[in-house]
């Protein structure tokens, strides 16, 4: 991958002529994303993210940390032992420059299992990294291995069924045969286009069923204003 997401983060922080990210999915048109949003303070975070941060405790793993805004609040404001990981080298370089003490360029499936965590965070549609519904068990199995016996996984997502048209009977018209939350994602930045990649939105009932099937408890913590939610998974 070209790491355009990380490049945008890096350019913004180091004032290297940053531009907005252009996003497009298999079910939406092109849209602009202001990179400054990734550097938001706690006060400017959505309620779901604020709640996840407030519930965090102990040793924390922030998966897909991006620019590191969640990790900074946990480390500096809450004095927690937090490790921020991301697959983007440039995002992690930015996190280091912002003062995050423990970082790692790593895919979650490749993270060593000799350290366990009290809180594992997956925010900004944390289910996205699962990619497809078929791969959810593989990721949940890995997360279980990284979790302390009394630990918690705090993860958010959205039910995107509202984005599909209704048929004459009031049901939803969903093209294809795959789960409707499986989409493909494209990024464009400074006239470069990232290779298309899969991204998963999970409705809460589907997440809950997957959790139960993999011997995890699942609790709905809070619902957002637009079909989004925060859930807590425990052993």
From TrEMBL:
Does the record carry Transferase as a key word? Answer: yes
Q: Which UniProt keywords apply?
A: Methyltransferase, Transferase, Ubiquinone
Pfam families recorded? Methyltransf_31
EC number assigned by the record: 2.1.1.222, 2.1.1.64
Which residue numbers delimit the Methyltransferase domain? 56-159
Which terms does the UniProt entry file under GO BP? methylation
Write one Gene Ontology MF term: 3-demethylubiquinol 3-O-methyltransferase activity
Name under which the protein is recorded: Ubiquinone biosynthesis O-methyltransferase
Q: Provide the species name.
A: Flavobacterium succinicans
């Amino acid at each position: 991958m070209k790491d355009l997401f990380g490049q945008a983060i890096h350019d913004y922080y180091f004032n290297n002529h940053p531009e907005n990210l252009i996003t497009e999915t298999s079910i939406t048109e092109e849209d602009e994303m202001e990179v400054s949003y990734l550097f938001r303070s706690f006060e400017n975070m959505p309620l779901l993210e604020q709640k996840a941060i407030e519930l965090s405790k102990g040793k924390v793993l922030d998966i897909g940390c991006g620019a590191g805004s969640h990790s900074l609040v946990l480390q500096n404001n809450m004095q927690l032992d937090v490790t921020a990981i991301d697959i983007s080298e440039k995002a992690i370089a930015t996190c280091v420059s912002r003062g995050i003490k423990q970082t790692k360029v790593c895919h979650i499936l490749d993270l060593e299992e000799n350290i366990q965590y009290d809180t594992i965070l997956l925010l900004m549609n944390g289910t996205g990294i699962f990619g497809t519904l078929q791969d959810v068990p593989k990721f949940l199995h890995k997360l279980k291995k990284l979790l302390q016996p009394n630990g918690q996984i705090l993860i958010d997502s959205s039910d995107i069924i509202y984005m599909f048209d209704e048929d004459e009977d009031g049901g939803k018209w969903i093209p294809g045969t795959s789960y409707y939350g499986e989409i493909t994602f494209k990024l464009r930045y400074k006239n470069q286009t990232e290779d298309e990649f899969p991204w998963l939105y999970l409705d809460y009932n589907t997440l809950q069923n997957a959790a139960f099937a993999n011997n995890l408890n699942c609790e709905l913590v809070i619902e957002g204003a637009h079909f989004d939610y925060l859930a807590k998974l425990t052993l």
